[in-house]
């Protein structure tokens, strides 16, 4: 019976009737497929290195999915303390009440606030809690909008287990993470307008192109500033010009754009 089996066995069983990312193989040391965009303020993650347990809030309309994801996050290596909410307005009220929350996992199609609306509501209220949006396979366009909304993580519910866990660790460390499947589909959609992107690239100065190359290779602002002998503020000014010229909404989109143009292979 499920009730008497290990957490891993329960998760694999639930995975057969839900879309939670739970392949049967264990974690591996090297994760190739999650895309991490370095954040400007890196912090030490809770729960991974003997600190206070990670406080996680899960928002999803399906109780079975909530239970499965909760079991996954409570188990090693995450070891989170998990709270759940079926309604996104209840989750928002929980974050506003001062309950300690380190990260929110929110269904893209949450109700009554969608996942993207939830992210924007937290930003509007000045609540600095990273949100990982979870969509169904095929929700590419909606998840792409999460880049503009400044979601901290973007994954579909069929993501590989090791990829998902690596993404969680990246997010709670202050970075942004995008599932590999989403990345490939984002790039495929970008392929529909290659000539316009090439024309936009021609507007960049040599310095801006070099900085975009470094962003495409996931280098942080401090690393770029140190390598070029300039201030953090100057790097941010260059990035603002790059975003404006390429019509991008932030560093995550810049990483995707650089990958699309082949800059990450240079």
Descriptive report:
The protein is α/β, with parallel strands linked by helices and about 270 residues long. It has 2 domains: about 1-185, Response regulator (Rossmann fold, 3-Layer(aba) Sandwich); about 195-265, Arc Repressor Mutant, subunit A (Orthogonal Bundle), CATH 1.10.10. The chain is built from 12 helices and 7 strands. It has helices spanning about 5-15, 65-75, 90-95, 115-125, 140-150, 160-170, 180-190, 195-200, 205-215, 220-230, 230-245, 250-260; strands spanning about 35, 55-60, 80-85, 105, 130-135, 155, 175-180. Strands 1-7-6-5-4-2-3 form a 7-stranded mixed beta sheet, with helices on both faces. Strand 4, helix 4 and strand 5 (about 130-135) form a beta-alpha-beta unit. Helix 1 runs antiparallel to helix 2 (about 65-75) and helix 10 packs across helix 11. The longest helix is centred in the C-terminal third of the chain and has 15 residues, at about 230-245. The protein is elongated, with a radius of gyration of 19 Å. The N and C termini lie far apart (about 55 Å). Mean pLDDT is about 75; it is low at about 1-30.
Short characterization:
By secondary structure, the protein is an alpha/beta fold. Helices cover 47% and strands 11% of the residues. It has helices at 7-15, 63-74, 88-96, 115-124, 140-148, 161-172, 180-190, 194-201, 206-216, 221-228, 232-246, 251-260; strands at 35-37, 55-59, 81-85, 103-107, 131-135, 153-156, 176-178.
């Amino acid at each position: 019976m499920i009730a008497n089996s290990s957490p891993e066995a329960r998760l694999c069983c639930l995975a057969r009737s839900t879309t939670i990312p739970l392949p049967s193989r264990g974690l591996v040391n090297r994760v190739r497929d999650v895309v991490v965009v370095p954040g400007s303020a890196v912090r030490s993650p809770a729960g991974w290195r003997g600190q206070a347990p990670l406080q996680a809030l899960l928002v999803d309309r399906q109780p079975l999915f909530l239970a499965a994801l909760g079991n996954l996050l409570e188990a090693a290596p995450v070891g989170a303390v998990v709270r759940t909410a079926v309604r996104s307005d209840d989750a928002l009220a929980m974050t506003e009440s001062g309950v300690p929350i380190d990260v929110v996992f929110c269904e893209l199609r949450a109700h009554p606030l969608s996942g993207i609306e939830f992210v924007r509501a937290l930003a509007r209220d000045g609540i600095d809690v990273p949100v990982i949006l979870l969509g169904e396979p095929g929700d590419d366009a909606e998840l792409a909008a999460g880049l503009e909304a400044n979601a901290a993580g973007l994954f579909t519910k069929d993501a590989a287990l090791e990829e998902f866990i690596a993404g969680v660790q990246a997010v709670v460390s202050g970075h942004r993470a995008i599932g590999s499947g989403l990345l490939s589909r984002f790039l495929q959609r970008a392929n529909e307008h290659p000539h316009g992107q090439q024309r936009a690239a021609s507007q960049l100065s040599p310095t801006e192109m070099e900085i975009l190359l470094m962003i495409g290779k996931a280098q942080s602002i401090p690393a770029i500033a140190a390598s070029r002998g300039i201030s953090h503020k100057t790097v941010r000014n260059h990035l603002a010009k790059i975003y404006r010229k390429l019509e991008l909404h932030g560093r995550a989109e810049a990483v995707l754009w650089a990958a699309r143009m082949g800059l990450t292979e240079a």
